[in-house]
Amino acid sequence: KINKLTLRQLINDGIKKLSLKMKSIHWFRNDLRLADNPALSAASGNDVLPIFILDPKDSENMGQASKLWLHHSLNKLNESLDGKLQFIHGDTIDEIRKLINSEKIDAIYWNKIFEPEQELKDRDLINSLHIDYQIFNGSLLWKPESILKDDGTPYKVFTPFYRKGCVKFGETPREPLPKAKLNFFHANKKSSLDELNLLPLHPWKKKIESKWDMGEESAMKRLDDFLESGIQNYKEGRNYPSKRFVSRLSPHLHFGEISPNQIWFKTRANGDDKNIDHFCSELGWREFSHYLIHHFSFMLEENLNSNFDAFPWENNTQLIESWKRGETGYPIVDAGMKELWETGYMHNRVRMIVGSFLVKNLLTHWSYGRDWFNDCLVDADLANNTASWQWVAGTGADAAPYFRIFNPVKQGQDFDKDGEYTKKYLPQLSNMPDKYLFNPWEAPREILDDAGIKLGENYPHPIVELKSSRENALASFAQIKKKK
């Protein structure tokens, strides 16, 4: 029998247990921020163990530039968490289950990554859990499954997807959440960021580190700077690589140091002119890329347009290597490839130029460009990178027609007229007059001598001839049109 004193004690113990905070995990992924983090906000009220897991299966597909950025971003996040971020290297599901048991965890919270493999991982994790869990959208303005055409099928053209599916009939994007007040705790097992071994061994990393400031605070500062001095001429100015009319927010956005919701609402608060509308539509392109790989996951490895499956790609290894090194003999192409190697970034106009040159003038399958960009870009995003390369190759959704072949000479003359961008990354061409800057092989000998250029020595001869390579590309395209 239980006497009154014992019964009172049991009741008091029960009340104490009910009043204790739950212990939960927040699993950081591509949401390396504290503000506007839906999963983190939902965990408020609990004692929270913040964790980051580097799964070997994921790191195998991560480029060197991305690993470099991730290291510094995690370091900044850990500082903002007073050193309480738990770094883990291992299989995601195994490591989470170990933590749940060792730390007596009651619930786990995370934000979804809208990529096919990551969604499968989420499903497997959910099936293995025996505690409460909650999943949120912290990386997209619109959920891919929520936007469909009137007939219930997914869009393949950007403008109706964005203007009609998203802006007109889609749900209004969620307003950004304030930074949540949370009580973070340490795990029993100590961990170190260095144990993840993210930093490349070669000294190349110092170039990248000198060009960027990683982390949530830097991301917001970059947005503020852009809204103050860059967006006013964005629609036209974004085409000129030497001008400061692009946001350079893409790596911060990819790693979730800033959310698309924060960017969207802070930008819209500045009004609604053509520049703001165009900038927001670029966020729409990011949404469209994730939308495409959600509905057509096969395009991560295959042509979305199957007509190109029969295309006679040449994939010349020597030409591809010249392209990677920025030694094609076409200055605007080479400047772009040098910018990529030195900064981990490339201006979007130049990305289209170097992409067109690789795929069309060199008849190289788009996957070669995708893989090189994945390794070298600090903003290498699976959806954006894949959809953009398929766009420039003419094989994807809403793609540039294959017969639209960028002329690198004209592109340089139109968008880098004074050569400021090109000469920055190709200093050996600093003394070339504008007339021959983008076509030095056509310059008279005395002009080359005066500029200190020796073709084939300090600057290469063109690796292909523009006219014939263009004709070859069009002839190859004509072959697959006949086979339809």
Helix content: 40-55%
Number of strands: 6
First-residue to last-residue Cα separation: 87 Å
Helix/strand/pairing class, anyone? alpha/beta
Q: What is the succession of H and E elements?
A: HEHEHHEHEHEHEHHHHHHHHHHHHHHHH
Radius of gyration: 26 Å
- For the residues shown, what is the average pLDDT? 94
How many helix segments?
23
Residue stretches low in confidence (pLDDT < 50, at least 5 long) are: 15-19
Question: How much strand content do the residues show?
Answer: 5-15%
General form: globular
The largest sheet, given as strand count, sense and whether it forms a barrel, is: 6 strands, parallel
Description:
With 484 residues, the protein is an alpha/beta fold. The protein is 50% helix and 6% strand. It is built from 23 helices and six strands. Strands 1, 2, 3, 4, 5 and 6 form a six-stranded parallel β-sheet that branches. Helix 6 links the parallel strand 4 and strand 5. Residues 15-19 have low confidence and may be disordered.
Write the layout of secondary structure elements.
Blueprint: H1 4-19, E1 23-28, H2 38-42, E2 47-54, H3 56-59, H4 64-80, E3 86-89, H5 92-102, E4 107-111, H6 116-128, E5 132-136, H7 158-168, E6 183-184, H8 204-211, H9 216-229, H10 234-237, H11 250-254, H12 260-268, H13 274-295, H14 317-325, H15 331-343, H16 348-361, H17 366-376, H18 382-393, H19 408-415, H20 420-425, H21 434-437, H22 445-451, H23 466-482
Parallel strand pairs: 1-2, 1-4, 2-3, 2-6, 4-5
Helix pairs in contact: 7-13, 12-13, 13-18, 15-16, 17-18
